[in-house]
Task: inverse folding
């Protein structure tokens, strides 16, 4: 199987490496617009990788396409894959791009093409955790997602911009628009991250989770931020983003009913965001190749994959999933 | 002008003193979690 990985950044290069460690993928076409980055990445990859220095959306010779280009630039490649009926995995964590891509859901279904949206840390792992948590409860009323940390420079830029844009929370059958950077909430993440102040931001998780679980009445997403992050969010980034962020974490909190009593389930994970995103995207690609899908069409990870098998797969790849046990989880 | 600055500083110091007393007495408006994280494994993944 020949797989194209578009984008050789912090996530894309790792996806290529992880796919090469399996046996199903015989060849990888790794494409980027940055020649220096390609040269650097190609040193650590073997002979099964074809390096292509060309625009992302020019013609691709592959059976499956993984789009790991910066969020906001993924749409043309995903649409082209849908039109040519080739399975595609998108790592975009941009709210606007996710909403725009979901408009092509009917076309993906008509073409019988698997399109996996938000295959990353958050969204991505958070969607799988939410789907798994849902299975523990009889009914779920609330899902609250929060994340800490950023992957590569493109991810840091999305994080920076998201804090200055309008966030969308699903609340009581409508979308609640709130300014990014508002709504402080102290969230406890798995150690060593611990408690962090998190704020609303333009994040795609509520959109993907509402698509998967329309019956849930309250879905929110928050991101950790410092005072400086919030004050400078409306400005261009004052200093160039780091090549890769440090340790990050995600947390998914579900409120619901089990045996007629109110229950709260909190799941989380700690990892470097680019590493976790690449692991989720690579596993998603393998699931698509092996046809381990609930259906063929466009959806986030909570809809298209079985969460238990997917979490087993992540565990085998070293991603540690944790559950919080205690009181005042929503303090 | 100096009187205004002095008044503002006194207000800040008074607020800090009150906050300090609350903290010493263990009165904290932020609820703390009690519990901890454990790895999801075995029966949790069925």
Result:
């Amino acid at each position: 199987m020949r797989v194209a990985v578009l984008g050789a950044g912090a996530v894309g290069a790792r996806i290529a490496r992880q796919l090469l460690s399996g046996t199903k993928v015989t060849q990888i076409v790794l494409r980027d617009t940055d020649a220096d980055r390609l040269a650097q990445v190609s040193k650590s990859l073997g002979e099964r990788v074809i390096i292509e220095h060309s625009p992302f959306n020019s013609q691709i010779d592959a059976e499956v396409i993984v789009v790991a280009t910066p969020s906001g630039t993924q749409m043309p490649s995903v649409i082209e894959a849908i039109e040519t009926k080739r399975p595609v995995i998108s790592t975009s964590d941009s709210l606007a791009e996710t909403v725009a891509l979901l408009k092509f859901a009917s076309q993906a279904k008509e073409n019988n093409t698997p399109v996996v949206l938000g295959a990353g840390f958050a969204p991505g792992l958070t969607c799988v955790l939410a789907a798994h948590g849902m299975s523990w409860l009889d009914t779920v009323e609330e899902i609250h997602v929060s994340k800490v940390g950023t992957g590569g420079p493109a991810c840091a830029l999305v994080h920076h911009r998201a804090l200055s844009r309008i966030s969308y929370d699903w609340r009581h059958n409508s979308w609640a628009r709130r300014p990014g950077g508002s709504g402080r909430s102290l969230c406890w993440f798995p150690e060593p991250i611990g408690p962090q102040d998190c704020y609303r931001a333009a994040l795609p998780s509520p959109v993907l989770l509402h698509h998967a679980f329309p019956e849930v009445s309250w879905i929110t997403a928050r991101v950790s931020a410092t005072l400086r992050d919030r004050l400078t969010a409306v400005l261009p980034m004052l200093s160039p983003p780091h090549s890769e962020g440090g340790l990050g974490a995600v947390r998914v909190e579900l409120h619901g009913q089990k045996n007629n009593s109110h229950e709260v389930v909190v799941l989380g994970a700690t990892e470097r965001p680019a590493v976790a995103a690449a692991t989720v995207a690579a596993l998603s690609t393998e699931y698509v190749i092996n046809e381990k899908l609930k259906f063929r069409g466009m959806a986030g990870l909570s809809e298209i994959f079985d969460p238990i098998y997917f979490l087993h797969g992540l565990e085998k790849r070293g991603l540690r999933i944790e559950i919080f046990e205690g009181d005042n989880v929503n303090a | 002008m100096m009187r205004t600055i002095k008044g503002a500083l006194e207000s800040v110091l008074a607020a800090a003193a009150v906050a300090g007393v609350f903290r010493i007495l263990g009165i904290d408006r932020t609820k703390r979690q009690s519990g901890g994280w454990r790895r999801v494994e075995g029966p949790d993944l069925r």
Q: What stands out?
A: The first strand of chain B starts at residue 34 and ends at 39.
